[in-house]
Design a protein that fits this description.
The chain has 172 residues and is mostly helical. The chain is built from ten helices and no strands.
């Protein structure tokens, strides 16, 4: 991330990333198939899904998502949250990353759909469930875009407020 901030995403090479990480390019490619994967790898998806899985099933889906986000993101030190914010800004500002992020979002949505289906006793193909997951994802994207515009905004708080708004029925 430091290299991307210093010289730009497009100007940064895999060789430079490998050198900064003190690994060979072949070792880099063992962990990340492409340069995009370095940025798009979300180390918090698994802990968020695990936290969500551990919550009581009687907790509503959006409330459960909010609680899992609070548990995982709330435990992050400020510098880790700042790195995640910078990663998000990079993703929305580089067209190649933004395009690939849709694939990553689809995979996360599928995992979240399966988990919420299990929690609610619905089929993962249930249109109402898919709409809910799409709305949660939309709130996440809106918060990310806002954070990209304003470096002083707290992404976790913005996301929680957006999910609270969704949970209340999206009144204007």
């Amino acid at each position: 991330m430091a290299l991307f901030a210093e010289q730009g995403y497009d100007a940064t090479t895999v060789d430079q990333i490998a050198a900064a990480a003190e690994v060979s390019p072949s070792t880099f490619f063992r962990y990340f198939p492409t340069k995009e994967d370095v940025v798009l790898h979300d180390r918090y998806d698994a802990p968020l899904l695990a936290a969500l899985r551990d919550l009581p099933p009687e907790l509503g889906p959006i409330a459960a998502v909010r609680e899992s986000l609070r548990a995982v993101l709330g435990a992050l030190p400020a510098e880790a949250m700042a790195r995640e914010r910078d990663r998000g800004v990079l993703i929305v500002s580089v067209p190649a990353l933004r395009a690939r992020a849709l694939d990553e979002a689809a995979a996360t949505m599928a995992a979240l759909t399966d988990l919420i289906a299990e929690r609610t006793g619905r089929a993962p193909s249930d249109p109402s469930l898919r709409n809910l997951i799409g709305a949660v994802t939309g709130v996440s994207i809106a918060a990310l875009l806002t954070a990209a515009e304003d470096p002083d905004v707290n992404y976790a708080e913005l996301l929680d407020r957006g999910l609270a708004h969704l949970e209340s029925g999206l009144p204007l």
